[in-house]
């Protein structure tokens, strides 16, 4: 392996480790002190040229009125295709994004009416969290602060800091039973497998492939 490629992998892994710490601070999980979480989160994200917005309120203010960002001569809104944030080439893209948000929101609204809001929320959170798979990244598990092999616990209990993630994973395994997913396939091999085999999903019912449990497939 060329030295430059090795350095690229090492540098990216270390930076990802910094991102994990900043990500954890954003959840206020790094420590019991908000000021410490905000400080560490700010520093780690700044190192990666990405300053964390800190909480969802500021994030909403940012996209709605461009709070904490560059100043413009007129009101800036990230949903407005004519906003000074964007150039002429990007207007159509922002318009399509807005249409997509409206269509998606309406679809979720109709789904909630049909299935119930509780069902919708359970799918968004619990089922989605249990769809996560812990993977073994070998030595990089430590470099990435175990976000790789304790990701199920992180999605279920996101306020647990990384230094307790291994302990939490051991604790939830007996409770989750068969719902806990772990893949010990060599990560390079797993990445190749996902790239070559996971093209699309289809149901497992013979007569109607849109029904049943959906599986990844690579054959049309």
UniProtKB/TrEMBL annotation:
<dbReference type="InterPro" id="IPR012171">
    <property type="entry name" value="Fatty_acid_desaturase"/>
</dbReference>
<dbReference type="GO" id="GO:0016491">
    <property type="term" value="F:oxidoreductase activity"/>
</dbReference>
<protein>
    <submittedName>
        <fullName>Uncharacterized protein</fullName>
    </submittedName>
</protein>
